[in-house]
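Quick one: structure for this chain?
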Amino acid sequence: MVFIGVSLLLVGIFLLISNNLVNDLAEQERSRMQIWANATRELTRENSDADVDFLLSIIEDNHNIPVLLVDADGEILLHRNFRLPESVDSLAVLDISERNMKFLKDKLSSLTNSRNKIEIVIDDNTTQYLYYEDSTLLKQLAYFPYIQLVVVLIFVAIAYTALMSVKRAEQNKVWVGLSKETAHQLGTPISSLMAWTQILPTMGVDSEIVADIDKDVQRLSTIADRFSKIGSMPDKDEVELVDAVKEALAYMQSRIPKRVKLTISEQPAAQQARVMLCKPLFAWVMENLTKNAVDAMDGEGKLDITINVSTRMALILVSDTGKGIARKNFKNVFTPGFTTKKRGWGLGLTLVKRIIEEYHGGRIYVKDSEIGRGTTFSIELPLILN
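Got it. Here's what it folds into:
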């Protein structure tokens, strides 16, 4: 924000300086046109004793400012430096073509109400008017500040994007480092626990108790394996999507409250759908969405998982009857740290989005939600086409 603020301040300073330059140049051009008008007046006076050659040199010296000299009735007497539709060498309007005359009259009409007008009083009975356009240089300089503004804004946008990319890269490194370190730290106690599950039966411990302990140890091993896969592209296998979803939810079905009714349904077209999945990470996605849904329903409601396919994508809809999400937060729910819970890090859906989009080339988003009525998340995964 400081970088953007300083950049905008510099842009403002550049615009102010450029605007002052444009105004100074405009005043200089008006002064030149005033001298040109004075020279024209002296040349048209009958008793003028001015140096004719000098006055003509002043008039001829104007090569870049388009001018029109008209009489009191609005008839064009002289034109100079306009790019006419048909070329003409003469300064006077003698023998000018109809097309060129229309062009000059249009120019005169556009200049009538501008500030670029100088009155030339020849005598008591004769008055002429000099109209002029800004020179090409002045026009270019007038546009330059805005071009400069666009360039600076583009530079700021690029720099901001680069800074944010660096920031995200650093966050990713921390994320990956923590994930792999967690997996590493869990490895040793898990290995020890696995060994104990082999020893406990020989010590007379009930086999059912050992079996339950073994399930939890296997669960810890699965979690450690998931963490170890974060940060590098995981290996994926070709699987049937329906089976993968059911397998991923098998662990949760026995652990969600009995007052939550979980249903898994597939459309006929989805029964043979095959996708490339890293099953441990996909299971993590489904578990996260399921836990969030159960929390949103306060442990009571309906959770529907629907599997379907479109032309090229497999579709998984996760719908609950929970508290719902405000529309303004549809995208924010995937932002690291965003959470509506009293407890939690706000990283679950961020992780889900990373797994689906970065590791599986799919897409996840809030398809629909209504406060007090529930939410539907949509997962899209590329189909394996025959």
